[in-house]
Amino acid sequence: MSRFLNFLIILFFLYSCSSKDNEKVSVISDGELEIQMIEAYKEGMRELEKGDVIYASKKFNEAELLYPQSAWASKSILMAAYGFYSQNYYDRSILELERFISKYPKHKNIDYAYFLLAMNYYETIVDEKKDLEPLLLSKEKFEYIIQNFPETDFAQDSKYKLGLIQDVLASKEMHIGKYYLKRKKWVAAINRFKTVISDYETTVYVEEALHRLVETYYKIGLTDEAEKYASVLGYNYQSSKWYEATYIIFNKEYETSLNTKKDKKSVLKKFKNIFK
Prior knowledge:
By secondary structure, the protein is mainly alpha-helical. The chain has a domain at 27-87. It is 83% helix and 0% strand. The model is unreliable at 4-28 and 253-276 (pLDDT under 50).
């Protein structure tokens, strides 16, 4: 019995020593991984500063894979995303950011991730005649930032960007409306101009939209409707060039007098030039 007890004690002792040795090996292994990860991250930063975003992003991804449970892993994803964004690789930046948002939804820098995501879409906006998808996606992301991170600087920047996006969207509506107007598709044109007034009332295109409504209604003989919108334009934008254009629609003699004045100025200018 005593021999068996001694055997158990020796076995327990050997197991304890083995566990401690394994633990030491594990600690050393984790420490080495962290050192390698930090070095990979630093190398990524150096390459990013040089402008080699492809190699930099490769090192950031390497740092993340070496030690995924470290705080450096999330930083690595964000830096890879920023690197791609800085060199106009928007699709790759978006992929990195979507992965970050999915993996770290409660991260302290999640607001920055959403803002950079919105900026990636924003940068791909060309003009009002091109694809609307990036414009609408950026609008959605900026609105999300304002709603969920209202006290941040990113929210302030998002509000400014939304204003610019509203201008582009209004411009798109005006472009389509004038297209229909040229082709005498009156109802389609009217609907587009009304959309500008109702949905983009803070943009610079409201004045022209009101004028185009006056112009369109007048052409199809709905004078009362034309006068209604002319009144709105006159009340709010009387000093506008579009109000003057609207005034001409109802007062052809005014247009004639304007042309006469311009002709007189032209003649006077030529006359003065003779005696220079």
